[in-house]
Amino acid sequence: LKMLEFLLPPPPSSWDKNKESKVLRSISECTVAPIEPVGSEFLAIARRRRHKRTLSEDARIEEALREANEDDNEEYEEEHESKKLLRSDPLKWKEQDHYAVLGITKLRYRATDDDIKRAYRRKVLKHHPDKKANGDDSFFKCIQKAWEVMSDNKKRREWDSCDPTFDDSIPSAKAKGDFFEIYASVFEKEGRFSKTQPVPTLGDAEGVREDVEAFYEFWFNFDSWRTFEMMDEEDTDNVDNREEKRYLERRNKAARTKLKKEDNARLNKLVEQAFKADPRIARFKEEEKYAKDAKKREKEAAALAAAEEAKLKAEAEQKAKEEAEAAEKARIADEKKTREAAKNAVRKEKKTIKRLLRDNNNFLAADADAQAVGNQLVKLDEILEFLDTVGLEKFRARLEEAVPSGVEILDLVLDEEHLHVQDAKASKKDAEAARATTDSKTEKKSADKPAWAPKEIAILIKAVKQYPGGTISRWEKISEYVMDHGGDENETPEAKAKPAASDRAKLQASVQKAVKAVNLNDVPTERATVNTDAVIPPVSAAKSAAAKSAAASKPEAPKPTMAAPPNPNWSTEQQIA
């Protein structure tokens, strides 16, 4: 029993002791009373101290007890607990069968989360330490560890991967008996580790090709979640040294990788072995062989039927031609019907719009004069003339919507549509003008070049005289001479160079064509001389004079060794030179 002492705080420093004071209340003397620890919180503290539990562990266990009491009326088949199981050491929890501890060995990996939770409640209710006379809680700790593993999906998968009751053996390749009875159960138990669920089954002897191929495609690309953390030889949880812990983790990881490779190799061996022994695969191969033979026979039959096919082809072509003609006629008729329907629709819309105008006093007030009515009719005619079927439908719909609002709104709708039509016409006119301008510019650029001037022809004659036939690169030199001495006196060198370069290319092309017309004579040819001092008449006069002179002196004219490029503006003498 402890005494409680109550002391009043000292008075403030500003307190005047001589000041008159008055006692209003006083504190009575303390009485002695017994105090006993009671209540749920005290019991919880005592329970945790007795069983050495943490606050969260105690809360979880007590919640399981309450839920187990609520589920006490549930019927379930309780599994037998052997003495060996009840003597399980909680420190060797990796070696214990958690499903056996929870009493769900018949379900095992098929047990749902709800099944595990209910089993845990029942076991907590049955084996709670408070119900043990000697207070032994070893098996209860095993139950807690089993719940800790089975309630965590990651830990449960790690334990299921190394379930001691799992038989990972595969049948022998020489096993005798029914193929499906031997391998169906093996693939079923291996399917528990698949990330993809549900797993396709082996099927039976009557399975179709698509299902069988899908089955082996799945197993040849099997994606397993099986891991081997539970097989770690080194426990790193109680290692404090960081370097040592990393070393042990590397060893454990290497061991897991090795076990995973061995498990994958075992599974691949199982699938390949089943594929080779599957009677359906052999049947499919026979069917393929038969199909190839049938295809070969079909080719032979097709060769024999080629003549008949040629005959039928001509008939089919004739029939197709007739059908095409009939289809074309039908298409033309349909197009005609469509056009007629469109015209009828346009007439109908125009008629409806005119009726709306007539029924609503031309969208004008009652006292509107004849000129206003005429303007309305002109606007309407422009709109009806410009709009297509869709535009007329929209315009008519807007008018019908505006009818209840009165003639003023109808007049606004008419004016708005008229403005839209005028804008569209103006845009169309501008586009046509721009297109016409572009076309005129294109035509102007593509206009023919002007004919040669008399001065240019005189320069060309001098060049031909200076470089007679037989000169190496004759026409290249002639073109360079014309380029250097021809053109307008006011032209710049760049302006002269462009047409000269084009003419040079034409001359070279003419030379290449003229080479084919070489005429070799036994007698040496004579070169005609041209009087360059003579005054050259205009082109038209030069043409007529040259033609007469050529006609008079044609018998005595020597034959050139190489035909010069033809030019309609040259005289005969100029071409001979």
UniProtKB/TrEMBL annotation:
Main location: cytoplasm
Residue intervals passing through the bilayer: none
GO molecular function per UniProt: Hsp70 protein binding; ribosome binding
Keyword Cell wall biogenesis/degradation: no
Keywords: Chaperone, Cytoplasm
SUPFAM superfamilies given in the database record: Chaperone J-domain
Keyword Calcium applies: no
Superkingdom, natural source: Eukaryota
Region Disordered, annotated ranges: 63-83, 316-345, 422-449, 541-577
J domain location: 97-163
Protein name per its UniProtKB record: J domain-containing protein
Organism annotation: Blyttiomyces helicus
